[in-house]
Description:
This protein is mainly beta and 295 residues long. 6% of the residues lie in helices and 39% in strands. It has 1 helix and 20 strands. The protein has one helix spanning 2-19; strands spanning 32-34, 41-43, 65-71, 78-84, 92-97, 105-112, 120-127, 134-139, 144-146, 148-153, 167-169, 182-190, 209-215, 218-224, 231-237, 246-248, 254-256, 263-268, 276-281, 288-294. The strands form 2 sheets. The chain has an 18-stranded antiparallel sheet that branches. The protein is globular. Residues 1-63 have low confidence and may be disordered.
Amino acid sequence: MRTASIAIVNAILAVLLIGCGGVATPSTPASNTPIGNGGTTMPTTPAPPAPPPNDPTRPSNPGMYQVQLVSYEHPQTSVGQVTVDPVSNNGDMNLTLKQVVANATVYVHFCRFSTNWMECFEVGSTTTDASGNASASMKFPKQGIWAGVFYVSPDNWTSFSGATIWYETEPSPYGDNFNVGQNYRVALYPESSVSGGVGKDVPASTLGSGFVSVNGNMVHVEVKGATPNTDYMLTFCANGGFNSSCNEFGSGSTFTTDASGNGSTDLQATTAPAEVFFVDPNGARGGYVSAFVVQ
């Protein structure tokens, strides 16, 4: 009888414990992600669906206008940087200047490629401090896909002809300055999509993502979702258009995409002006140009 009574009491206690949140056999927990150093865990949020391949905001094409500002006269020296926000794609941009002219008001203009510098417009202005430094947020004033160059001047000019230019966006190795790290990283977009065109009729082309970067004296170009099984060549031009100085890199500047349209190449920089890059099928237009998007 004593043994039976103990068993009955234990059974009652077990029921009470379970009802009050006591010990019970747990079910298999869902996948959790730690928060902090061993703190409370929360269920993992599933990743959002990937954007379509030709969406210019796709995250595989991030950060894609980061270009050094260099002195306009050769030999160039690095004096700062212009970046366009790749996440918002709404034209948010930043200008930095380091140890340039002190206590000076400077104006930022943009001139699009292939206009012989005739179609330029003001982006914004800022003032350097007593050490010649500045960091200013600006808003690119026009929507579209833009290929061209930013210029920094002491005057708010309306025509490039005769304007005083202090600094411009250009990979610094092209002015014999090979001591700067990654100083250029710009997205590639189809030439046919550029606002205002690139100065020539070009067939439409598609691209999943792509970019050109310069690190030290090395140039890297990469495309994904371009035309499959196609030979491409990297070239560069000054901002005055195709009638200005356009050059081929020569050895190492060509590559062939695979069956998925993916390809890349690395090559050594030269000292010629390289303000805008093109990645075109060998011997033809209708490829891609270094540019940024504003929606």
